[in-house]
Backbone:
């Protein structure tokens, strides 16, 4: 039986603001949900349970490393590669990351820096994730923030991670169906302890929710040292 899960990326490409985001040269990694066979996929909430034509119709993760890094944009291809794999993920510079964690320096990040690392989750929401009639369930909003933040840390620290705290301030009801972008940035780091901030927005400047998260990075495994 064929897999019914299809990313309806046409939901994004029909909007100029989505195209501007997808083909932004400062966003160097664009990937879809990583779908494995049943029983072999992590994050199955997004890759299986909510992956329907009436829930999350389309999903893209867009990572901006900042610090002046850019990519050569190919407008014939939306996706730049595969997402990071949850299992066996390890820092490319193991020794550098080990030193950073061991030092446990309290580093504050500037959330307004235009060249700060940022992760964006772009989603097309159907009508089966509502709380009130025609309004997105608040728990889904929180899950999107958690997803964007965790993916940011996966890219930036090249490490799996676990959420320890998530706070959400709801500012405006989200009417469905809709397209949302969920942005996340790092606000503070102390060794394995990382704090983040995030925003749920549309393409016209409306902010529906703000979030603040705390995460702990997975322990470094000596066997992962290259």
Residues:
């Amino acid at each position: 039986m064929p897999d019914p899960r299809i990313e309806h990326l046409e939901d994004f490409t029909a909007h100029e603001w989505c195209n501007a985001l997808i083909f932004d040269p400062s966003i160097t990694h664009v990937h879809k949900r990583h779908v494995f066979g049943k029983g072999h996929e992590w994050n199955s909430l997004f890759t299986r349970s909510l992956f329907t034509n009436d829930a999350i119709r389309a999903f893209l993760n867009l990572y901006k490393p900042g610090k002046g890094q850019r990519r050569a944009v190919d407008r014939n291809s939306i996706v730049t590669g595969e997402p990071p794999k949850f299992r066996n993920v390890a820092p490319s510079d193991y020794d550098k990351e080990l030193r950073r964690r061991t030092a446990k320096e309290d580093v504050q990040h500037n959330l307004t820096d235009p060249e700060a690392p940022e992760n964006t989750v772009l989603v097309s929401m159907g009508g089966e994730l509502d709380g009130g009639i025609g309004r997105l369930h608040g728990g889904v909003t929180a899950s999107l923030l958690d997803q964007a933040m965790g993916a940011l840390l996966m890219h930036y620290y090249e490490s799996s991670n676990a959420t320890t705290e998530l706070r959400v301030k709801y500012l405006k009801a989200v009417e469905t169906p809709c397209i949302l972008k969920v942005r996340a940035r790092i606000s503070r780091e102390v060794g394995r302890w990382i704090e983040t901030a995030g925003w749920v927005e549309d393409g016209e400047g409306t902010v529906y929710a703000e979030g603040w998260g705390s995460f702990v990075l997975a322990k470094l495994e000596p066997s992962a040292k290259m």
Q: What stands out?
A: The domain at 9-66+89-217 is CATH 3.10.129.10 (Thiol Ester Dehydrase; Chain A). Strands lie at 29-31, 56-64, 107-108, 118-125, 161-170, 178-190, 193-201, 207-217.
